[in-house]
Design brief:
The chain is α+β, with helices and mostly antiparallel strands. The protein folds into 2 domains: 2-119, Aminotransferase class 4, branched-chain amino acid transferase, N-terminal domain (D-amino Acid Aminotransferase, Chain A, domain 1); 130-279, D-amino Acid Aminotransferase, subunit A, domain 2 (D-amino Acid Aminotransferase, Chain A, domain 2). 28% of the residues lie in helices and 30% in strands. It has helices at residues 26-30, 48-61, 70-77, 125-128, 151-162, 205-216, 228-233, 264-279; strands at 6-9, 12-15, 33-41, 44-45, 86-94, 112-119, 130-136, 167-172, 175-179, 183-188, 191-194, 221-223, 236-241, 245-252, 255-256. The strands form 2 sheets. Strands 7, 8, 9, 10, 11, 12, 13, 14 and 15 form a 9-stranded mixed sheet that branches. Strands 2-1-6-5-3-4 form a 6-stranded antiparallel sheet. Helix 6 crosses helix 8 (264-279). The longest helix has 16 residues, at 264-279. The chain is globular, with a radius of gyration of 19 Å. The structure holds N-(5'-phosphopyridoxyl)-D-alanine. The site of N-(5'-phosphopyridoxyl)-D-alanine has 15 residues, from helix 6 and strand 13. It catalyses: 4-amino-4-deoxychorismate = 4-aminobenzoate + pyruvate + H(+). Its cofactor is pyridoxal 5'-phosphate. Keywords: Folate biosynthesis, Pyridoxal phosphate. This is Aminodeoxychorismate lyase. It comes from Methylocucumis oryzae.
């Protein structure tokens, strides 16, 4: 049963049930597109400029022109929002509908643009912590682009769920990259560490906000490589994303992280994050 809500598709606001695209859309045939997830707290879009800059970077990475200006994007999202709720905008742009299936970029077609708004579901793990498992990162070398081509991510997440965990923490060899749908932080010897930006991770907006809050509030932090040995030795592990914010990992590969409770640095950062959200 579909939710009864209005969505945006290629210039029109229509009922979700009426939102249809062609089977020749390159998003459907090839996963040829990118997306964004932008939180909106009580109708206010959170760090919209940063999300739209990352959208631009993703479009540039797949050689697709941005169909709208920043102001036009804001105008497109606004009618979808409900000022009484915490929600997120899901935006997807594909290369569009070509007359036939061909790997090469088609000429003279416009992109398919779809946006909808959903409520941010309460996530108990955010307060009590979650279990995570480490999984070999089998994705490609363009993880910095927010591509809709998410098959590897969903297989990794499902592997974690099948093992009774809520998130997969991915690694390439000895080096930790990120979660299946999140960035990773650890606290090691009192210092907050997250892997540096690069082709192996999505440059998370939540990640940037946490680094900014750490710097502004005198918390020791750095962007640096995290090895599996450091992950295993960490006092605290967090996974972060726009829809779940900052989630403490209390068990890794069936071993307690620290005391097996959300740690004091997480408590501090979560309080800073909630206070910061309220100021915007
Ligand atoms: N995913 N890394 C990956 C692979 C992600 O999919 C996400 C978020 C993040 C965190 O980025 P941000 O803080 O900007 O949300 C990192 C979104 C929420 C999703 O795919 O639904």
């Amino acid at each position: 049963m579909l939710e009864n809500k209005t969505v945006y598709l290629n210039g029109d606001y229509i009922a979700l049930a009426d939102a249809k695209i062609s089977v020749l859309d390159r998003g459907f045939l090839f996963g040829d597109g990118i997306y964004e997830v932008i939180p909106a707290y009580k109708g206010r879009l959170f760090h919209l400029d940063a999300h739209l800059q990352r959208l631009q970077d993703s479009l540039t990475a797949i050689r697709l022109a941005n169909p709208h200006t920043f102001d036009e994007w804001r105008a497109i999202f606004t009618p979808l929002l409900d000022a009484s709720k915490d929600q997120y905008i899901y935006l997807q742009i594909t290369r569009g509908v070509a007359p036939k299936r061909d790997h090469a970029f088609p000429e003279h077609i416009g992109p398919t643009v779809f946006a909808m708004c959903s409520d941010i579901a309460p996530f108990p793990g955010k307060v009590i912590g979650i279990k995570a498992v480490t999984i070999d990162d089998k994705r490609w070398q363009l993880c910095n682009a927010k591509a809709i081509t998410l098959l590897a991510n969903i297989l990794h997440r499902q592997d974690a769920l099948d093992q009774g965990a809520a998130e997969a923490i991915l690694h390439r060899g000895e080096v930790v990259t990120e979660g299946a749908a999140s960035n990773v932080f650890i606290v090691l010897n009192g210092v907050l560490i997250t892997p540096p930006k690069g082709p192996d991770i999505l440059p998370g907006i939540t990640r940037d906000v946490i680094l900014m809050l750490a710097q502004n509030n005198g918390l020791a932090c750095k962007e640096d490589t995290i090895t599996l040995a450091q992950l295993n030795a960490a006092e605290e592990i967090w996974v972060t994303s726009s829809t779940r914010e900052i989630v403490p990992v209390i068990e890794l590969n069936q071993t307690l992280v620290g005391t097996g409770q959300p740690g004091p640095v997480w408590q501090r950062m979560d309080a800073l994050f909630q206070a910061y959200k309220a100021t915007l």
